[in-house]
Amino acid sequence: MNKKILPSKIRNLIYAGRASASASTPVLSGSITIEAAAAVPLFFLAVVSLLYLMEMMAIECAVRSGLQYAGKCAMEDVGRVTGIRASEIEKNVVHAIGAERLARSVVEGGDAGVDCSESCLSVRTGIGELSASYQVRLPIPIFGIKPVKYRVKMKIKTWTGYEKSGFGTSEDETVYVTATGMVYHRDYHCTYLDLSIHMVSKEELEGLRNDSGGKYYPCEHCGGGWGGVYITDSGDRYHGSLSCSALKRTVYAVPLSEAAGKGACSKCGQ
């Protein structure tokens, strides 16, 4: 025999079902908050580390460039003074980088943190060894890590000229030759050495002539091209590329006695 369920009992059963369903549903809001709280600092730390590495690389490049500038200044004074002074090297390095730039950088001590005391110059060979040492501090001192030491080194050579006795006789004339040329030139600005290059269209090329009255023909190296081409006043070839090897001249100054076997230039060699 079925018993009748009263309305008040039905309401109690509905509330009990809701309570049991709520109790069985997992709560995820707390775990998501914990993961977010852990991920944000890690992401921030990764970004800061990347920026810090970029700053370290920028400082190293700046110190290397400043050391090169200081070496150039030191080599200019070698003829007047013997050796190089470390204090002068440091001064020029800081001047090249900028004292304010070093003060707000990661270099320990700012502009006073660059040490060039190990720089030296060999009087016998004229070769200078430049050295710049500095320390990089961590932005956040953790785990007791000490500043990292860096050192930039380079070698430079001073230009002291040459001995006249080792460069031919005192009466030996200086002439100019190229690596593949068969003649020597007395004038450095000879038209065969100092090429006057012009760009013209392929259409007007037919009516153009060189200084000798000759026509222009395609270059054996670059083929001549199709659009705009390049010609010289003294040559008889047109070129499709400005970087063609036939348009390049590597000129060497040598004594006339070392140009044996080469003929004189028809323009400047007489």
From TrEMBL:
<keyword id="KW-1133">Transmembrane helix</keyword>
<keyword id="KW-0472">Membrane</keyword>
<keyword id="KW-0812">Transmembrane</keyword>
<protein>
    <submittedName>
        <fullName>Pilus assembly protein</fullName>
    </submittedName>
</protein>
<feature type="transmembrane region" description="Helical">
    <location>
        <begin position="32"/>
        <end position="54"/>
    </location>
</feature>
